[in-house]
Task: inverse folding
């Protein structure tokens, strides 16, 4: 039975997760258990449900109750579905809802690095990638272009931040990911122990071209991408098996990390 509740009281505590709590507060909402994240738009909520994520409540534009959100809401069981006109929701949340729907969902327990890498041939490592838009775009490219999993350093942006989820078009739910401890030393050692050759996407004097056939021939590759500003750390570059560059024209020396990731995944994907 769908439990539709008309929004009449903006201060209702049930609406805090949509209107008054920051992403970081949502992350710690159920400590010590995993917290909460917000999925936006019926399509993205549907992908989260397909991947087994558990909904807590929905906030929906009232006309979407019989529109795009109808079938998605029906899959959510008897959770509260808060509904209001578009202008009311815009005032409540402070922004225009994409496709008129938000869904609060429980975060899953994080996988271990070994679980993410267990059956993988191509892994992505994001070192200090702090822009959620870039993280979301990288996930979308990774899912589309043959990557099997993603590892993030602890200071990279959370893949379940709302913007990252939205930019990824929900692919953050489809590709396994986790955070890697002790990067670069321990993390790199763990990847090598599992049989991965590590590829630093970096502009170095000894960088080889991304189309070098030796790269494609490797059974297991971990493609390491660095922060938007400074790229990879010197320690990471020194400890990778390969240093790889994307050939450039017109005097351009580098691409945005999200654009570079798509080129790398296309060329090196399994």
Result:
């Amino acid at each position: 039975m769908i439990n539709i509740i008309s929004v009449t009281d903006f201060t209702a505590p049930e609406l805090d997760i949509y209107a008054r709590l920051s992403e970081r507060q949502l992350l710690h909402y159920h400590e010590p258990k995993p917290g909460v994240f917000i999925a936006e738009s019926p399509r993205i909520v549907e992908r989260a449900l397909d991947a087994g994520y558990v909904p807590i409540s929905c906030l929906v534009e009232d006309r979407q109750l019989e529109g795009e959100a109808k079938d998605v809401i029906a899959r959510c069981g008897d959770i509260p579905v808060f509904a209001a006109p578009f202008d009311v929701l815009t005032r409540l949340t402070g922004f225009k809802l994409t496709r008129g729907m938000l869904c609060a969902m429980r975060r899953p327990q994080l996988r271990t690095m070994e679980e993410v890498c267990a059956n993988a041939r191509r892994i992505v490592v994001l070192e200090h990638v702090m822009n959620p838009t870039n993280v979301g775009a990288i996930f979308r490219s990774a899912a589309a272009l043959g990557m099997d999993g993603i590892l993030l350093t602890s200071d990279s942006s959370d893949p379940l931040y709302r913007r990252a989820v939205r930019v990824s078009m929900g692919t953050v739910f489809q590709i396994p990911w986790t955070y890697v401890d002790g990067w670069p030393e321990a993390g790199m050692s763990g990847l090598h122990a599992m049989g991965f050759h590590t590829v630093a996407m970096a502009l170095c004097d000894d960088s080889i071209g991304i189309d070098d056939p030796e790269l494609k021939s490797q059974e297991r590759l971990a493609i390491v991408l660095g922060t938007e500003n400074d790229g990879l750390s010197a320690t990471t570059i020194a400890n990778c098996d390969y240093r790889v560059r994307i050939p450039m024209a017109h005097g351009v020396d580098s691409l945005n990390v999200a654009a570079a990731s798509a080129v790398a995944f296309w060329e090196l994907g399994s």
